[in-house]
Specification:
The chain is of the alpha/beta class. It is 47% helix and 9% strand. The chain contains 14 helices and seven strands.
Amino acid sequence: MSLPNFLIIGAAKAGTNALYHYLRQHPQVYMSPWKEPKFFAFESEADLGFRAANGKDAPVNASVILDQREYERLFDDARDGEFARGEASTHYLYVEKSPTRIKSLIPDAKLIAVLRNPVDRAFSSYQHLVRDDLEPLDFGAALDAEPQRIAEHYAYLYRYTDMGFYSEQLDRYEKTFPENQLCVLLYDDLRSNPEATCRRIFSFLGVDENFVPDMSGEYNRSGLPKHRVMHRLLNPSAPMKRRLWSMTPRFARERLLDAQTRMVNRNLQRQTLPEHERDRLRDVFREEVGRLEKRLDRDLSHWLG
């Protein structure tokens, strides 16, 4: 049986894509070639059926791996020296049943969570959906629509504010796993000092702390595509992407992914969060930021500045 022994559990739009690429460069780490299998988030087809704002099924429905053997095959290519085996699925932090599902199959798993200013995370999630032509509303209207969209089973990325209440999400893991199995990081640190942050993660995983990955790339950037057709061509559907990965030799995957990422990024233009909407979200998250400051023993006042 091939299963991971560590997981990056979230948060969405908090640098997990970059962290995934940093980790996969380490000679003692093996990362699943399919970044977000979401195996521990959903058990069956009945858990899916998510909607998107374009009137179609949300892409997440096609990207989930439900079959355990298919999930295990993601780790079959791990070499003998790659004793830290992991994957990154940001739904794990948010989906209520994920901690118990992880505990039942890999009880000793090490878990990594990266938290981002929930105001910025919300807008980044919005830009991600705009980028992929899945969000027709302006940001304020999308925030207003969130409760109704949750009730109508829209995909989780549409939960712009709800996904930013990290305290409750972390509570579920701390009630399920020992403290020494959970590593909580900040996106701020990953951005400002990625080397030190990676050393902390490498130490947590028990691999060589002195390895320094190439951190020059930018992954999963959000923004408005300058050319929609080009963006669609560069981002195949989840089933097609999975087939392409399975047919691509391991040695070529990283180069191809880097080339695709560079082309996607050149075609994106970032938007700016309107100040009145930033003020609105500061009020929404003010108490949550205070809770996180106590939990992490960190000054997070700049998140509300």
